[in-house]
## 1
Amino acid sequence: MAEMVKVKITSKSHVKPSKVIGRRECQLVTFDLPYLAFYYNQKLLIYKGKPDEFNAVVEKLKDGLRVVLEEFHQLAGKLGRDEEGVFRVEYDDEMDGVEVAEAVAEEIAVDDLTVAEDTNSLKELIPYNGILNLDGIQRPLLAVQLTKLKDGLAIGCAFNHAILDGTSTWHFMSSWAQFCNGAPSIPVPPFLQRTKVRDTRVKLDLSAPADPHAQSNRDDAKSDPQANGDAKKEPVLREKVFKFSESAIAKIKSRVNASPPSDGSKPFSTFQSLAVHVWRHVTHARNLKPEDYTVFTVFADCRKRVDPPMPESYFGNLIQAIFTVTAAGLLSGNPLEFGASLIQKAIESHNAKAIEERNKEWESAPKIFQFKDAGVNCVAVGSSPRFKVYEVDFGWGKPESVRSGCNNRFDGMIYLYQGKNGGIDVEITLEGGAMERLEKDKEFLMMEV
């Protein structure tokens, strides 16, 4: 598959809002700043269509983008700092705007891409591989690549994760699609006032170890046998999409809720049930010792958790990582509800008070996270099956497949997506040996044992 994807970039241009907006500045807040050393967040949507209409489709997409950027103008800006060194989003009408690349890969059919498991085989369809969010000082905050396929179109997007999370990403994508589909206006405009949720001004010193480039160099030295004879090579990672049908999800949820908690807590949700199913089986596939710790992490939406609550349309990052940890032996040796209860309690305890404490702690000693700082023997869940990714219809039908790119992946990173025909797609990155064992785990796959 990797050999099949031969993509040729034919042109690059920039798209700006279709009306004069003027100079706008918006301070990044505590929820945004930790992601400066993550990489651009990549999404790929693959559509079937008539390739002979590609040029007309590109113009339609660009026209819709110009209109939607009137509301989402921050995506057409750049990162900057004010006179005190506080990061912000800056926009003015003289900036380049969103980068749009046009490309052709006419040997590649849509069906080739929908069965691809390894994101390396998709990487040429998505811009900004390996680009840090901090580079948004010089680069556009959104880059789009429109690739003509043998029988369709691939839309690859790279969003600067320091300025928006998944909820905002899909709000933008659905709004863009609605304009292309003839909507006169966005049903719900973005709420752009970040300082309404947090107005603490945090100055970051990126010259010391927090500098992601410096960290990257140190990581390279660790993994380079020439630089460090004792260093172990980085594990070879594999990716795979496991598709759980609605009936499989219902069965998992039923099993986890078979013995309700005796403390009167709520039944376990679909997410909590699927999460413990994945956590237990990944832990087993890793061949951990009973005493080894394993961490479950979820990047949770805080829009309704903060006080006062923020609207769903809040544009920015309003997520925080929630952690829970236990020994591998306890997780696998106890009934399903043991792990599900750990996840449920961690999520439910992350209320406005906990968020405030986390923010104050971070602001007192800011730490720029590496994208893989999620914990030891970690299972970390991003994205959400709540996002209506298969409703992003630009006027020629729903996508055949929605995937994440190769940025921000590490051993244990998981993306959850709505399934095209119901159910949930679970996109997992694991060390090769563990992935091989997981693929053979009939209980994980919900096959009859």
## 2
Amino acid sequence: MPHLVLTLGLLSLAAAPLPGQAQGAPDFRIGYRVSAERQAPLRVAFEASAPAGYVVQWVFGDGTQATGLRAEHVYYRPGTYQLQATLVDAGGRVVSRAEAQLPVGSAGAERPALTVLQPTPGEVRLSAEGSVLYTPARPTLMLSGREVGTGATRLPSGTHAAVVRATTSDGRTVEKRLNVTVAPWTGSAAFDAEVLRLTNQARAQGYNCATHRTGGGALPPLKLDPTLTVAAQAQSAGMALYGYFDHTSAFDGSTPMRRVLAAGLSPQSVAENIAAGQQSPAEVVQGWLKSPGHCRNIMGDFNRIGLSYVNRAGTTYGRYWTQVFARM
């Protein structure tokens, strides 16, 4: 469900190894990935390494189980859970077992959140990403009085009511409302392609963010990712439509990671560069390279990128640029 995709933190991946306990057993180690906040509802990605022919049985500590070298599980409620992973051979014999306590914190009072993506002019996608709900019940998304899913809805120019409605763990109905603006704006595939080329050129030339010179160790090129581009376009369009300039949206409160998750990707790490007013790809990339924080993102440990240039006449800056970086 969209509001439960909290697998990874905003900037980095947290991992915790758990060694197998049995003496003389085959090599057996497990680990898990979880958001830095460790707050419910919390999605945890478990992974085990074991010899061929063995299987792992997971007991998550909340009455549910799974089998396989990899498993994902959602802890809906705060608490401390006793995790158990058991290594079983081809004959069904238990040969090793690992155990650990997994604390899941509270994110506070249950509340819905609405993340609005507008990746093309006239197109709106809604997500309940960012909600805090201690229950697996699926929220309802409404647009212009009609229930919609998380896919794209085409709308005419104007103001449209968006609503997310959810049931809390104690049976209350809660909702969040926003007025979505649909208005013309233009993008440029050519500008986006040139930003990508210049970004990868800086990586290939080993650009040094401190000395502003090339010649350092080359980095592999970033691969353009269409899902990250949806998140980038939502940010550029959001700034153009709602009049803010910030990584956190003044319209729906979404952050870079929240927009990426709402678009449908769950990366290990995410970073975002934004700019406004620059007239060309060369100008915007040079500006980012001369800024230490933006340069570190361009030269960072990422392997995918999403890009968006948006032009909307009559706005504060007119032209808005976004790069979204991710490590998968």
## 3
Amino acid sequence: MEPTKGSQSGGTIDKEAANKLIEDLNKAVTDLYEFEENYFTNHPISDAPKKTDHVQEKLNETLSRLKSEFDQLKDFPECEVRAQCYYLLGRALNIHPAFNPEAEEALSKAIKLDPSLVNAWNELGECFWKKNDMEEAKNCFNGALKRSHNKVSLRNLSMISRQEAAKSTKECKEKIDIGVQYAKDALSLDPCDGLSWSVLGNAHLSAFFSIQQNPRTLKQAMSAYYQAEKDPVAQNKSDLHYNKGVALKYEEEYKEALESFERAKNLEPSWELPGLKQEQLLKYLTNTQILVNQHGRLKAKKLASLQNTLDEKSLGPYAGGNFTSASGTSVTLTSIPFSKLKEGVNSEKVILGFVVCSIHDDDSVPFSFCLTDEEKTTIVVTVYNLAQGKGVIIGDTVAIPEPFVTFNDFSFQDKKFQFTSVRIDNPLVMVVNGKKVKKDQLASTQLSVFKVIQ
């Protein structure tokens, strides 16, 4: 076989040798990414602050190897070989979260030399994304997808579709639905891919924030996150645990939410957001516990006065009347004190109390307040899908049919929490001061109160 001449100082290199070099370089870059992805498989969580430096050391070793071999291949006459060389260089440089202009330059050259290089299209798309050039990023992922139906492009397009601005509620829903479908398509190619499961969870979580605060949507997000955690690569991604913590917070699984934020914080100590959200949730829970224990800090005389406002009229249409339950059947409600509540749905029951305080939360959803009954038992009520400024105030009477109850009893760090809460997903079932809540008090499209990390 006639040797093909290259430009390296050692003389000539044939096609077989060039392919062998590309194979070796590909392994070196793959090893680099496996080192980063499996860092906590081989290092204790206490090494998290050292991870960036360790990855940089590994990157420096890889780049030294790449640049050493690059001289033998950069002027190789066959475009495909040179394209692979530039792609591997760009991919290595692209390992860090921050934009790297050298990576963009190398990957752009790879695509010009070989437009069929799907992996290079995807890597270049991520470069543009880091650069906040979403349109070019989208073009790259679509360019890759035209050449090969692959999970990486589909995952990224799922994220981008949810980030694009929408002019209406309908358009917002359409973009999120497209994002969900892209993630499902990615999973159809690899049902065990934890990163795709994580993206699907984020798509459902975006729907919860942007379309409707539906508990079913939260459960879909949680189901996807649990699947993602089965993947050893995905389970060590701090953004997975952060977003899972967000979903758990809104599921009102507070201890698990705090633990997820803690995990995210430990995996990436330099990322401030998980610690901030954990601190905010602890502050909310601590404040809630104090307000429950002290009946909203109302004085005894005020409490006694408000107790006298509770009468049959305060139940409004629920005073001996019928109620259509979630199952669609018509039932007669029986009024019970808070002390008789059971965990879960209290079928065919109605509770009545007076508002003693609202509970401040750094997030605007849900609207939370403390409710006290005639026995002076105080509980927490959380209301979703309620329009801003349409909440109840101190002294209002509130009746809640078939309340969904959670008995919170847990400790985290040095704090103990023990209180009963009632969750309301549809404000229209509430009776305030003897009257049903009206439709104009419902929220329209919800804005994200938590940032979903893509």
